[in-house]
Amino acid sequence: MTQILLRQDHTGQCLSFGQYCDAGGFEALRTALGGMSPNDVQQAVIDSGLRGRGGAGFPTGKKWSFVPRNLPGPRYLICNCDEMEPGTYKDRVLLEQNPHILIEGMALTCYALGVEHAFIFVRRGYEQAAANLRTAIGAAKQAGFLGSDILGSGFSLQLDIHQSAGRYICGEETALINALEGIRANPRVKPPFPAVKGLWGQPTVVNNVETLANIPAIIAHGPTWWKGLAATPEAAGTKLFCISGHVRNTECFELPLGTPLGKIIDGPCGGMRPGSTFKACIPGGASTPYFTREHWGVAMDFDPVAKAGSRLGTGGIIVFDQNTCMVAATLNLTRFYARESCGWCTPCREGLPFLVHTLEKIEQGLGTESDPDILREHVHALNYAFCALAPGAMGPVEGLLRLFEDELREHITKGRCPFGD
Amino acid sequence: MIPEQLAYDLQQRVKDAVTHREAAIDVLKELQRHYGWLTDEALAEAAQLLGLSTLQVEELATFYEMIYRRPVGRTVIHACDSISCWSMGGEPLLRHLEKILEVETGSTTADNAITLLPCSCLGNCGDAPALMIGEHLYGRVTPERAVAIIEQLRLGMPTKTTS
Ligand SMILES: Cc1cc2nc3c(=O)[nH]c(=O)nc-3n(C[C@H](O)[C@H](O)[C@H](O)COP(=O)(O)O)c2cc1C
Ligand code: SF4
Ligand code: FES
User: Fold this and answer.
1) Structural domain B4-61, CATH architecture
2) ipTM of the prediction greater than 0.95, yes or no
3) How far apart are CA A351 and CA A392, in angstroms?
4) Which of A21, A76, A121, A168 has the fewest CB atoms within 10 Å, i.e. is most exposed?
């Protein structure tokens, strides 16, 4: 199984600049600057079928193609390393092992887009990742891979780190742009999309860490090779799956995109931990509806997961065993979203605390027969919120209603949580 | 008043930014590091450094989880209460921390040494349950490890951060 992002040796140590170069690092940048036009680079990314790894799975090359090249003033690239979706820690693991691959990926992307100033937006708490990036940027500058007139090509790039202070909404791309500008991080209205009017009013592409880290391999080995790393003909590339919960090995694994869920859990995860049997999991970070045993065979790729009623999201798989109360789990998730709501729009600001209240009541055994319908109405209504946070928050609630309605109703009819407290 | 060197460093950070405001969070974090929390005085100093009104700075300061607009102890323990940590015993861990620190979550120990706060996912979900103390992440924090970590904090010693 080929890994292109994480270290093959599983030491988890941070690669030095020299080690990265010895292993072929920055060759893709040389290749691109030496003989490919910016358009060639973009075309390779389009051909690769790379879809964004930040949660929404939008085709990366297509996103880049929305950027107008003829507007006056600068264009920007922002790497999204906010990573605050519960159950998600892949970008941290990647940057703790290999910050250089992101820098090379960003340099290639900026070349393709005609960007001369890019930012990496790093969340609070990722101090090691930020320190690694700072060192790596210094080394890349020294070697002439960043700065002015890179490798004599005439292409110049300044790369800056912006460190945040902790708030989930900053990961939403327009809120992120406000945060970076030093404005309270409420999302902006779309359209105009950032590709046209983003950072400081200029065309801006926002891409996830893992997305950008895949670009060097696409350029170095070609889109066909890269696409073929996946487990199915429909999928493209590898994916970082970060696992938590009740399995033996709760680590971040780089696996072929499209690997079936059950193979991930029984394979690299080493199965359930002793004493646990599989009950359910969250397949792609806190905002994705649950999977159960019936989804064991689902290929973990964007479309198959969506077809099965959930989302691949960030690839953060959270596994629950037989002793987990799904009402309590959903309550925990909803509390997170209620706390992290940015407060800008009414459905989310008012609706989420009300849902927390309703789920608390049910969990305490004080639920009423009408509560499931109240939950259902909210799942519907919160789709009309201003940004994607509120619909995301409804992922687990929708999953609870669809897959665990019996368990939900048991709380109400018994007047207590069947799992004790 | 902040030391001259810090003032100079922050002025440089502001000057190098594309717009002054881009440096706002860095400025707030540095001032918080100096004062321990973001005091009214710090807020006014930030406003001056950034060329913003205090209200504009307040809008930012009250938005972020890791900016403290109220006094905190010398050390802040952030205990993750999001889903992966919850599934791995985050709630009992928090109760245990309350017991050994003799505080309720959200408050500071009597000797002003430690503040205990809940927080959202720390990105350490594979090593749940997780804590962040200062700038360090802790993982797989058992009740026994929590006791050891706090003993070391109380002795003013750096604690081991690896899981
Ligand atoms: C509430 C919310 C939080 C988000 N958090 C992140 C994040 O932490 N990291 C990330 O890459 N994308 C996050 N996204 C998705 C971004 O808005 C954006 O789609 C993504 O960064 C695009 O990158 P990609 O195309 O490379 O996937 C978030 C979206 C929402 C609605
Ligand atoms: S949906 Fe929530 S997070 Fe998004 S703008 Fe509305 S209040 Fe803010
Ligand atoms: S859920 Fe606790 S660190 Fe992610």
Assistant:
1) Orthogonal Bundle (1.10)
2) yes
3) 13
4) A21
